[in-house]
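2024-03-11 09:14:02 INFO worker-7 job=invfold-0412 stage=load source=structure_tokens
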């Protein structure tokens, strides 16, 4: 936790072992100590009027507002407070969790405040009560909520704001996610009435049952032991796996909560302004700041900033003059290192980083650009057409396009077949845990059953190549046409393929999971090199821990092995990706950044299997080149994906280049 910039822990949903508080005293964590009270049962009982309003209103009848439970509830709170009163890490007492509000919690709060008036009190479930009665909230110090939308928080701050706002739970960290750490951080920092929040939760909960034949641990969760009443994998909602290895979401959290941030940088004058988010330390006493200047992902200069003062919660200036090249994609990265050894943290431990684009006018990544210019090769292409296929043959290649789909079925280059299966237009993804609600709309729209159908195809042959234009659509049975598509392929004499796909979506349909092209490549193309955001997976709303660079990986290493398989391993804001072996490969490149995914598992396999150890590799490298994907968010137990991260485009155009090649 210390290594990932946490400073507070909530002991949900019961007091922890005494040794825990000793460690928090020693290592410097603030703690919300929470009483061992949770009463979901009264909310779940049978109601004739089965509405949220009625359930919330009557939740408190059986326990929270029934005096027969007063002694039991007050006793549990007293036992916690009496036992832990001398632990100075505790800054707040919590009356319990999700039990509604009533006379018994009024009594517990009154006793707590009389006994320990100097500590803060909180109880999120105070908002669930009989709306026809008036209750006493005078002994509650903060207004706390779980998983509110940012708009709900803003509404409270604008219309009430009588008490500080505490996110007692937020950013539900289930599976691939969360995607909204940065947005909550900005909300917290923008208003002094915001206290911060507690991410749900630290670790996945599962039971290890030995090792599968493929070497993976067999983790069991709800329903795996034959029980009828369970919550499935809803206990798998942490920032670390059951064995405490790190989820990508924990890296995301760490960098969002870095100790300092760049406010501005003037690359002409070199003036750099930083904000210090620490409460007590001057930045010069806490961090050492190194920097790297990269061009197209390669470090071309680096150094260490001289010490300069930035007071806690203040801003400070220094000067950093760098020589930015005239061309290429250039980024300045500031890396914050711990200046001194602290308990649990070594000196020079990296606390986070900032990345600033400093490119000049020519901002194209040269790695991408070198593949994009038109080749001028005078070589006659052979183009043969029948009712269902178009065959294009050049000196080194032979391609086949299916006129029924307008997509490639064969892609031979230098005598090697690159495609194991026909190319597809792809709008589906294996639903993430955070897609658990929207996926019902996606399936209602038959996105998971969609396929491409072409209607007309025109072939025009020129001096340097051939242009093939098709009118097509993405359709599914029993629903109207989802996408109307014009697909244009320009195939040059050297074998380069330029794609131009113009799309009109029927606005009646929900947001798309993704849009792109899916290829099933020769499995020998297992080495990946890309310029984009890495090294870990990154998405439009989940890339705070990623940075732009030139990365190399094996296809297998790009897979994030969530215990319940789901969409994973995409890389955002890429301009160039290359899959190869020692002798041949294929490049995807574009002038406008795209996302890509390379995996040994199909999205169908990821969706079908319920445990990671059950996954079976496909016979191909599944290579997705995507115009966009819907955001990740935290909707498994939180708000819907924010509007700016939704893939709700109605009109869009995807242009990219594919280039098979041989080395030497």
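2024-03-11 09:14:09 INFO worker-7 stage=emit residues=664
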């Amino acid at each position: 936790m210390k290594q990932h910039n946490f400073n507070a822990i909530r002991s949900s949903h019961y007091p922890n072992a005494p040794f825990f508080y000793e460690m928090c005293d020693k290592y410097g964590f603030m703690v919300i100590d929470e009483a061992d009270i949770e009463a979901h049962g009264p909310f779940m009982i049978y109601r004739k009027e089965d509405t949220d309003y009625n359930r919330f209103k009557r939740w408190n009848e059986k326990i929270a507002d029934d005096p027969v439970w007063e002694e039991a509830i007050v006793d549990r709170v007293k036992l916690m407070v009496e036992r832990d009163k001398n632990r100075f890490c505790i800054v707040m007492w919590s009356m319990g969790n999700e039990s509604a509000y009533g006379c018994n919690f009024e009594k517990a709060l009154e006793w707590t405040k009389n006994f320990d008036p100097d500590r803060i009190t909180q109880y999120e479930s105070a908002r669930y009560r009989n709306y026809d009665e008036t209750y006493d909230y005078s002994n509650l110090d903060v207004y706390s909520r779980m998983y509110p939308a940012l708009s709900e928080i803003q509404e409270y701050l604008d219309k009430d704001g009588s008490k500080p706002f505490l996110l007692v739970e937020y950013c539900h960290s289930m599976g691939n996610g969360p995607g909204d750490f940065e947005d909550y951080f900005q909300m917290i920092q923008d208003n002094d009435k915001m206290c911060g929040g507690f991410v749900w939760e630290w670790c996945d909960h599962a039971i290890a049952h030995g090792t599968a034949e493929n070497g993976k641990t067999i983790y069991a969760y709800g329903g795996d032991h034959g029980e009828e009443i369970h919550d499935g994998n809803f206990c798998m909602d942490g920032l670390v796996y059951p064995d405490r290895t790190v989820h990508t979401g924990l890296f995301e959290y760490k960098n969002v909560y870095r100790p300092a941030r760049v406010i501005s940088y003037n690359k002409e004058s070199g003036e750099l302004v930083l904000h210090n988010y620490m409460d007590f330390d001057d930045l010069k006493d806490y961090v050492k700041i190194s920097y790297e200047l990269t061009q197209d992902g390669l470090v071309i200069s680096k150094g260490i900033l001289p010490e300069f003062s930035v007071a806690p919660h203040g801003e400070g200036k220094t000067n950093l003059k760098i020589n930015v090249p005239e061309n290429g994609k250039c980024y300045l990265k500031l890396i914050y290192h711990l200046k001194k050894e602290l308990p649990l943290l070594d000196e020079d431990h990296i606390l986070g980083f900032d990345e600033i684009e400093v490119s000049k006018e020519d901002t194209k990544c040269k790695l991408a650009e070198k593949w994009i210019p038109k080749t001028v090769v005078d070589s006659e292409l052979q183009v043969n057409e029948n009712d269902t296929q178009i065959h294009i043959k050049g000196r080194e290649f032979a391609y086949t396009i299916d006129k029924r789909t307008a997509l490639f079925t064969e892609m031979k280059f230098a005598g090697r077949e690159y495609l194991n299966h026909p190319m597809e237009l792809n709008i589906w993804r294996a639903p993430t845990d955070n897609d658990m609600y929207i996926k019902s709309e996606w399936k209602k729209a038959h996105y998971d059953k969609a396929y491409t159908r072409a209607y007309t195809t025109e072939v025009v042959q020129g001096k340097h190549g051939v242009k093939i234009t098709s009118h097509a659509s993405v359709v599914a049975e029993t629903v109207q046409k989802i996408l109307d598509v014009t697909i244009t392929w320009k195939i040059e004499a050297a074998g380069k393929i330029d794609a131009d796909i113009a799309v009109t979506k029927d606005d009646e349909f929900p947001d798309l999971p993704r849009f792109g092209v899916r290829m099933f490549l020769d499995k020998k193309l297992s080495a990946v090199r890309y310029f984009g955001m890495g090294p870990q997976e990154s998405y439009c709303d989940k890339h705070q821990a990623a940075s732009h660079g030139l990365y190399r990986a094996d296809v297998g290493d790009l897979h994030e092995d969530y215990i319940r398989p789901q969409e994973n391993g995409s890389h955002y804001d890429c301009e160039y990706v290359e899959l190869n072996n020692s002798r041949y490969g294929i490049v995807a490149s574009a002038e406008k950044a795209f996302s890509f995914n390379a995996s040994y598992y199909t999205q169908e396999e990821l969706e079908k299997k319920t445990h990671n150890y059950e996954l079976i590799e496909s016979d191909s490298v599944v290579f997705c080149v995507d115009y966009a994907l819907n955001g990740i968010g935290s909707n498994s137990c939180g708000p819907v994906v924010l509007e700016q991260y939704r893939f709700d485009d109605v009109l869009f155009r995807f242009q990219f280049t594919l280039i098979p090649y041989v080395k030497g």
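2024-03-11 09:14:09 INFO worker-7 stage=report msg="The longest strand covers residues 584-599."
2024-03-11 09:14:10 INFO worker-7 job finished
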